[in-house]
Amino acid sequence: MAVDMNADTKVNMKKTVTIEPITRIEGHAKITIELDDVGQVADARFHVTEFRGFEKFCIGRSFWEMPGITARVCGICPVSHLLASSKAGDAILGVRTPEPAVTLRRLMNYAQMVQSHALSFFLLSGPDLLLGMDADPVERNMAGLIKVHPEIARSGIRLRAFGQALIRALGERSVHPSWSVPGGVRGSLKAADKEHFLAQLPEMYSTLDIALDLMKDALDRYATEVDAYGSFPSLFVGLVGSDGGLEHYDGHLRIVDSDGRIVEDNLTPDAFLGRISEAEETWSYLKFPYYTPFGPERGMYRVGPLARLNVCDFAGTPRADRELRQFRHFGGPGKTVNSSFYYHYARLVEILHSLERIEEILADEILLDHHIRSRAGVNQNVGIGVSEAPRGTLFHHYQVDDNGMLEKVNLIIATGQNNLAMNKTIKQLATRFISGTKLEEGLLNRVEHGIRVFDPCLSCSTHEAGRMPLHLQLRAVDGTLLDEIKRG
Amino acid sequence: MWLIIGYGNLLRQDDGAGYRLAQTLATHLAPRPLSRDVRILAVHQLTPELALELAAEDVARVLFIDARRGQSKLLTLSKLDPAGAKGSCGHQLAPELLLYMAQTLYHRSPQGWLLTLAAQQMDMGDMFSAKAQAATTVALSLVDKILVKATKVAAK
Amino acid sequence: MSVITLTINGELVSARSGQSLLEAIRDQGISLPTLCYLDGLSTRGGCRLCLVEISGQARLQPACTTTAGEGMVVVTHNDKINRYRKMILELTFAERNHTCAVCVSNEHCELQTLAAELGMDHVRYDYLNPQLGIDISHEKYGVDHNRCILCLRCVRVCDEVEGAHTWDVRHRGIASRVITDLNRPWGESESCTECGKCVEVCPTGALFDKGMSVGEMKKKTNFLRRILDGREKNQWNR
Question: How far apart are CA A90 and CA A87, in angstroms?
Answer without folding.
Answer: 5
